[in-house]
Specification:
The complex is a heterodimer of chains A (111) and B (117). Chain A has strands spanning 4-6, 9-13, 18-24, 29-37, 43-50, 55-58, 61-66, 71-76, 85-93, 99-101, 105-110. With 111 residues, chain A is mainly β. In chain A, the strands form two sheets. In chain A, strands 2, 4, 5, 9, 10 and 11 form a six-stranded mixed β-sheet that branches. A five-stranded antiparallel β-sheet of chain A has the order 1-3-8-7-6, with no helix packed on it. The N and C termini of chain B lie far apart (36 Å). The chains are: A mainly beta (111), B mainly beta (117). At the A-B interface, strand 5 of A face strand 4, strand 5 and strand 9 of B.
Amino acid sequence: GEDVEQSLFLSVREGDSSVINCTYTDSSSTYLYWYKQEPGAGLQLLTYIFSNMDMKQDQRLTVLLNKKDKHLSLRIADTQTGDSAIYFCAEKEDSSYKLIFGSGTRLLVRP
Amino acid sequence: NAGVTQTPKFQVLKTGQSMTLQCAQDMNHEYMSWYRQDPGMGLRLIHYSVGAGITDQGEVPNGYNVSRSTTEDFPLRLLSAAPSQTSVYFCASSSLIRDRGPLYEQYFGPGTRLTVT
């Protein structure tokens, strides 16, 4: 079945870049998403990428997709303390309405 | 436009009690879903619905019932609460119509934190 994996924790210094990685198993995934969850809140969509793209840039965010290795990454440039949150990778397979979420990566930004 | 609302925010139940978690959306979304979030396990899909009168099971449906009598509401019922159902529950909705924006962007409610003792 589908599976999405992420590392559980990342700590970076304020001003550095953060890279959060994700691997997925379903080769028929058409959309891949990054969601952000701040403490005590629900998830909010940060960005997404279609499966026919390799890269997407949106201000400080860069998403890279390697379809051959089924690897997705989210790079946050100039990481700020307000970026501290849990980041979830999710995939949507072509034949389903459902999203499959990874376990989330907790990003801690140190001053 | 309130988006997705959930009530209550917090709930403590005793083992064996039943209750209903409420979820409503005002975006006319066809798709609604319930997830539970447990530490280190991400979000797991409990039940989902693609329209009024249509529901289906997700990854972890046991112990939960849902119904979808209107487009707006999607309540989740715990039939006989167990400590294993202690979790944070999120409701989410999305449009299934392509020209409404990023396809299948899910909008999440703020969550209900449930403790079963």
